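Page 37, continued from 36.
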């Protein structure tokens, strides 16, 4: 396979499947977090590390589940836009959704650094080295999927 063929293979298989797997996994984590503090030992540790506050007040279960549904929906949308699974709805709407997903992930990733101001130190550390960079990478991957689908 030549370099152009390898690049096309990456864009059509590895990128969308990798993006979908990570989005789904983080979505499932949000479902878990709606009802537990796993893998943290208690609510204070959880909110300091995951939520950025040190008050020990967990986010509401409905809002956490909603984020989980949105992330898993983004995973499904990615696979539909990539034609890996049967699609529903018009092509243009799925494509707009994919660009929107990429934009939201990039906004969270780049804007996430502003979340560090006043946040718990544990959150600042993880947000700077994991959460925000991960969102930027996922946003870029989402953009790649959207652009590739636009060119088909």
């Amino acid at each position: 396979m030549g370099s152009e063929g390898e690049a096309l293979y990456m864009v059509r298989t590895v990128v969308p499947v990798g993006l979908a797997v990570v989005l789904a996994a983080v979505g499932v984590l949000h479902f878990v977090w709606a009802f537990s503090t796993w893998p943290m030992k208690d609510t204070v540790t959880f909110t300091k590390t995951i939520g950025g506050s040190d008050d020990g007040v967990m986010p509401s279960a409905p809002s956490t589940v909603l984020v989980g549904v949105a992330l898993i929906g983004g995973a499904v949308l990615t696979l539909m836009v990539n034609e890996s699974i049967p699609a529903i709805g018009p092509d243009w709407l799925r494509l707009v959704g994919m660009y929107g997903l990429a934009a939201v992930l990039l906004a969270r990733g780049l804007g996430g650094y502003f979340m560090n101001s006043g946040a718990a130190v544990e959150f600042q550390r993880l947000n700077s080295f994991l959460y925000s960079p991960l969102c930027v990478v996922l946003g870029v991957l989402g953009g790649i999927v959207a652009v590739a689908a636009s060119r088909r």
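The chain has five helices and no strands. Flag for discussion at group meeting. The two ends are 21 Å apart (CA to CA).
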